[in-house]
Amino acid sequence: MIGEKIKELREQKNMSLTELAKRAGIAKSYLSSIERGIQKNPSIQKLEKIAKVLDIDLHQLIQNHENDMELDGLDPDWIDLAREAMESGISKEQFKEFLEFSKWQKQRRESD
Predict the structure, then answer these.
(1) Taking a C-beta distance cutoff of 8 angstroms, is the pair 36, 60 a contact?
(2) SS3 letters across the chain
(3) pLDDT (tens digit, 9 = 90+) per residue, 36-58?
(4) How far does Cα 67 stand from its chain's mean position?
């Protein structure tokens, strides 16, 4: 999990949760929720800030997370698509709305 990787790197640098959050400019509670696996889909912008403070390349941070997801049977193309959507600024809510709209359109076509 990405949160476990962040915590491991933070501890290797003898950095407290508070210090990392402050230096990355993110809320301590948000960082804590990432590390504990509560926040499973942190924004790419937040991960970039965390990676910079931890002095690690963002790709390395994400790569380990991608490998975990691939082991769970996720198609790497879906991972790339999700990353592209996140990087373009599409929120999870917007993406969910798009999916609901697509389902509605499909149902309408099938009922005609």
Answers:
(1) no
(2) CHHHHHHHHHHHCCCCHHHHHHHHCCCHHHHHHHHCCCCCCCCHHHHHHHHHHHCCCHHHHHHHHHHHHHHCCCCHHHHHHHHHHHHCCCCHHHHHHHHHHHHHHHHHHHHC
(3) 999 888 888 999 999 999 998 88
(4) 13
The whole model's pTM is what?
0.57
Q: Where are the domains of the chain?
A: 2-111
CATH fold for domain 2-111: 434 Repressor (Amino-terminal Domain) (1.10.260)
Structure tokens given for 41: 């889909």
The single residue listed with the structure tokens 């690690």 is 56
Residue whose token pair is 């698509």: 81
